[in-house]
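User: I'll paste a sequence; please echo it back and then give the predicted structure.

Assistant: Echoing your sequence first, then the prediction.
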Amino acid sequence: MMIRCEGLSKHFLMHIREGTRIEAFRDVSFQLAPGEFLGIGGPSGAGKSSLLKCLYRTYLPSRGNVWYEDANGRTCNVATADEHEVLRLRRQEIGYISQFFPVIPRVSALDTIANSMVARGFPREAGLQRARELLERLAIPRALWQMSPSTFSGGEKQRINIIHGVIAQPRLLFLDEPTASLDSRSASEAISLIRELKSQGTAMIGVFHDMNVLRSLSDAVLMLERAAPAKDEH
């Protein structure tokens, strides 16, 4: 197994109403091997994005463990690992594609994408070549390649986001509605890229609004239910 999740839970405390606890999700467990895709489904407010953020450690889980085996065979608990270890895994092995792309000002689209490969140890020229291939494939006009994505439309930014997330072939990739803002052609091409990455051994955990797409990509689907607010027990 590459990743094993045991009893993962997340709640938020509401400071406006003291003692009120909002359960984002509760007691999630699963395991995932290389090349497998776990789909996350459920209604709005069921905690799908919160689960991904806990697995990626943007959020600290309230309870539970997330055991991850890295490329060297070393296992760590992402739920409790220190920040240096989390950052190492993000730089070298784990990727995340959300609906929003954090643009770096004054860095061109081409360099933004190529730098993702360079950061994981690939030669710069190899990064630039692969970046050009994917920019062509996702129909980003050549006139935009040397411009900062901050000037792009929402759909163009999201295509850059997807390319940036897949280009370095992470071992584990989280996907949070990556095609939500794309037209049908761009969405289809993005899904094709995701399938290729999966076939090359990348494990993935993803949320898609379109359940047909989610089921077509997934080896298994984990359905979350919306939890009601509860009084804090402590």
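The domain at 1-93+172-234 is CATH 3.40.50.300 (Rossmann fold). Residues 93 and 170 are 5 Å apart (CA to CA).
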